[in-house]
Design a protein that fits this description.
Blueprint: E1 5-8, H1 14-21, E2 25-27, H2 37-43, E3 49-52, H3 60-65, E4 71-74, H4 84-89, E5 93-95, H5 102-117, H6 120-128, E6 149-153, H7 157-170, E7 173-177, H8 184-187, E8 193-194, H9 197-203, E9 206-209, H10 223-228, E10 234-237, H11 246-254, E11 260-263, E12 282-284, H12 293-311
Parallel strand pairs: 1-2, 1-3, 3-4, 4-5, 6-7, 6-9, 7-8, 9-10, 10-11, 11-12
């Protein structure tokens, strides 16, 4: 019996490749080349499955050119690289890796928010340049985290995990906005208060973005939204690039309209708006919020489980569009 063939589109743990090789004919990419669309299409010919990351766009054009494709498994919780309606119409199951990265990503989001509030990157650069020669009472005076108001835009699993850290660990008051309000039993233990978006922006001392990217969320934080924030406030984005208008944010930082920002994601990444490199009051990291060895391995294992289950007659653990199977 012929085994299904799959493409592993980016470098991944060798043990994961070995596991996949027990079930499939695997074309791997341990050189970690990022495939342009024509090459991605070429490599997907004859493949029933693809192990993907955020750098592989699976859209209607790719699906039409790869009619044998049945499953695309993202090694990420986000899936804005997938055109889900097109996948469903083509009978292609899409999967992602929720839950396994929640706590690790929340750790990083909180750490990035703290580094932003306390001006850690800015002060480290100052020290490394050899400019630290004496103490002064206001040297890199930032803003307190404990007891302040934590604002969260997007109160899913990761948003709730950040809220718990703030409320229970740092005595922060939590306000949030989400497409739908949480049940009272989830709000109560952390004292979270549901507010409209404008109120969130006005009240937050530290605003953390954790909403999924969609066309409707594009530039959810732009010049108008930044203008509502306190001049002493910080903004932290660990969600997706494009949720923030990076050009508007750079201008607001330069002009002191907000105090600081921490960014792990960017529009057009890995490229980023050059204006962000010219302002000192921003902490920049290269999309590493889920990057611990344990968590990245758990993400890879779950993506592999989705592929194995879906292509060997089982049920994928974390499907995005299970209705696609009815069209297959």
């Amino acid at each position: 019996m012929t085994r299904p063939a799959i493409l592993v589109a980016r470098a991944v743990f060798p043990e994961v490749l070995e596991h996949l090789g027990q079930h499939f004919d695997v074309e791997s990419n341990q050189a970690d080349t990022i495939f342009a669309k024509p090459e991605l299409i070429a490599r997907l010919q004859g493949k029933q499955g693809a192990f993907t990351t955020g750098s592989e766009r699976i859209d209607a054009e790719v699906l039409a050119a790869c009619p044998q494709l049945r499953v695309v498994a993202n090694m990420a919780v986000g899936y804005n690289n997938f055109d889900i309606p097109a996948c469903t119409a083509a009978g292609v199951l899409a999967t992602n890796t929720p839950d396994v990265l929640t706590e690790t990503t929340a750790d990083f989001g909180f750490a990035l928010m703290m580094a932003t509030a306390r001006r850690m990157a800015e002060s480290e650069h100052f020290l490394r340049r050899g400019e630290w020669t004496r103490w002064s009472y206001d040297m890199f005076a930032g803003s307190d985290v404990h007891g302040s108001t934590l604002g969260i835009l997007g109160m899913g699993r990761i948003g709730q995990a950040i809220a718990r850290r703030g409320a229970l660990g740092f005595g922060m008051k939590v306000v949030y906005h989400n497409r739908s309000r949480l049940p009272a039993e989830q709000e109560a233990p952390i004292g979270a208060r549901y507010v409209d978006k404008a109120t969130l922006l006005r009240e937050a001392d530290h605003l953390v973005l954790v909403l999924p990217y969609s066309a409707g969320a594009h530039h959810a934080i732009g010049a108008a939204e930044l203008a509502l924030m306190k001049p002493t406030a910080t903004l932290t984005n660990i969600a997706r690039g494009g949720i923030v208008d990076d050009a508007a944010l750079a201008a607001a930082l330069r002009e002191g309209r907000i105090a600081a920002a921490g960014l792990d994601v960017f529009e057009g990444e890995p490229a980023l708006n050059p204006a962000l490199l010219t302002v000192p009051n921003v902490v920049l990291t290269p999309h590493i919020a889920s990057s611990t060895m344990a968590t990245r391995r758990a993400m890879a294992d779950l993506a592999a489980k989705n592929l194995v289950a879906a292509l060997t007659g089982g049920v994928a653990p974390t499907p995005i569009n299970p209705e696609a199977w009815t069209k297959a």
